[in-house]
């Protein structure tokens, strides 16, 4: 089973519990996650972005200061901009935040329900799925020399035939190397693979 299939399976499980929306940031590094998924209402997402709430969000602050899970109603961190109060205006009435991983590569995720608090068993299920996603999305320690050469050729603008000739291999071998690099980087496209390799400082 491919990594993307496994990720989608986890997201489906989460979606059955967090029926009113979620945001998942996997392996946050240099202030940005390497993968993110969100199903919050578009109106809230737009409002959140316009107000630059990410810099002041108590769910993010909690996620970087703690590991585990916590209902929003149990937060002890200050919320001077009343972000959680604003969220309720958009139907995000009850929530839970889950955090795991080292602070240098932290996964932080939040989930909402409109009409009630999450039960303990639901929080346990969500937490298990988030740890699974965190493990699935673990960036590779490195790429093989062949994979790096292949990505560098494409990044330089070479077409497959020219790149294969440059490396002294067949086009089919070049494509196989490219596919293996994409799979290792959990990228759907070659452009995404190149971008991730640069972000991971593997190129």
Query: What is Rg?
Result: 20 Å
Mean pLDDT: 92
Side-by-side strand order of the widest sheet: 2-1-5-4-3
- Count of DSSP H/I helices: 9
* Helical percentage: 40-55%
> What is the CA–CA distance across the termini?
27 Å
Strand fraction: 15-25%
Number of strands: 5
**Shape verdict:** elongated
What is the N-to-C succession of helices and strands?
A: HEEHHEHEEHHHHH
Description of the structure:
With 203 residues, this protein is an alpha+beta fold. The protein has 9 helices and 5 strands; from the N terminus they run αββααβαββααααα. It has a 5-stranded antiparallel β-sheet with strand order 2-1-5-4-3, sandwiched between helices. A hairpin with a 2-residue loop joins strand 1 and strand 2. Helix 1 runs antiparallel to helix 5, helix 6 crosses helix 7 and helix 6 packs across helix 8. The longest helix has 17 residues. The relative contact order is 0.14. The mean pLDDT is 92.
